[in-house]
Predict the 3D structure of the following.
Amino acid sequence: MQNNSRHFGIAAGLVVVSTFLVYWLLDSVLRLPAQSSVEAVSIDRLFNYHIWLIAFLFSLVVVFMLYALFVFRHRRGEDEEKEGEYFHSNVRLEIAWTVIPLIFVVFFSVEATRILIDITTPSPDEYVIEVEGFQWGWNFIYPETGLITQELVLPLDQPILLEMRSRDVLHNFYVPEFRVKQDLVPGQTTRLRFTPIETGDFTMVCAELCGFNHTGMQAAVRVVPEDEFAMWISGQVAAR
């Protein structure tokens, strides 16, 4: 049993080292776009938890597999009849591999539910914009003025409510920097809430396969300070 404990201790240490290395590799390769909405911060935190878990589970499987292959491989001159040390009916191990995954499942369920509630809860001062998707373009309607544009312009730090409809088939509103996305369903009005926190130009794409020109179904999104947004609205209305 002492020999087994030594091997388990070495393998456990290698799992820890491998977890950090794999996380660093994934974090370096899987670069996310800038966090440009309030919701992106909490969503990225949940992504980060998943990456840590993926790194750990990958290491747990691969390290033990490679350790067994290299340390317990048959060597020339060894007795063919030699057998390794056996152990069975380890109650603590059975409890651990039942309880620990359960803790992870409960944690991710609670955290994901909390974030979902946060990003879908209405804000009392949200600005409403109607969105119409169609093959293969977008209309953005500002109900307060009746303005219709093909460019989505948003005020900075203002909670936004998009009320979205599809004219034909399923579409999906997605700006990667905002992280949130929502389907547009024919015959229904779907809603998406977010608060932009970074000015700049972004690209909105359809993230639901919707036909031949699906990849070209994009729209410009611009986030500007509140005073500039008011001037833009006034200018657009005056130019009609």
About this structure: The CA atoms of residues 174 and 181 lie 5 Å apart.
